[in-house]
Amino acid sequence: MRIYSKILLVTFLVLAILSFVYAEEKLTIKAIKCCIAGTYEGVTNDSPNCPYGPKPGKFTMIIKQTDCSSAVYGEVLDSSTGAPKTKFEGTVTPIPRSNCCMLTGKAKGMPGTPDAECIHEVKAKICKNATGKWEVINGTYTAIAGKCCSGTFSIKQR
Questions:
Q1: How deeply is 40 buried, as exposed, middle or buried, from its count of CB atoms within 10 A (0-12, 13-18, 19+)?
Q2: Alpha helices in 67-148 (DSSP H)
């Protein structure tokens, strides 16, 4: 009878441990894949101390990415003319326990444009919305070179 009790106790302990391991595995949230390549429509809002006077602007952003890697690059186009305004390159990394990724990088004005001497640091939390499209609600661009504006931007994937 004693051996039977010991076997029963060991069995219950093993089952208890396995149930905790299984529960922990189910609670682990896998990191989202930051596959953000695509075409985006966006809006900028310059900060009030912009050297040229703050003004909102519309743009199209083309983000490229090789095999869903963390490296991203692309360009910003003038929405009204389709002309390239800025080249962009940076990284995108998952934000743990969320449907979002952190997008950071630098944007440099295209030669021959009014922003040719501008370099901006770009930071944004890019998230998947309810329809499965990527969007940025309140990203920032900060001028680090040239006489350029800083401000906020929003983009939504087409």
A1: buried
A2: none
Tokens of 144: 């680090």
Phi/psi for 146 (5° steps) reads: 85, 170
Quote the tokens at residue 33: 């894949």
Give the residue extent of every domain in the chain: 1-30, 38-157
Q: Which H or E run contains 18?
A: helix 2-27
Give me the architecture of the 38-157 domain, per CATH: Beta Barrel (2.40)
Helices (H) and strands (E) in the chain, counts: 1, 8
pLDDT in tens, 82-108: 999 999 999 999 999 999 999 999 999
Specify the pLDDT at position 154: 97
Of residues 34 and 22, which shows the higher confidence score?
34
- At which residue do the structure tokens 């990191």 appear? 31
Cα radius of gyration rounded to whole Å, the chain:
24
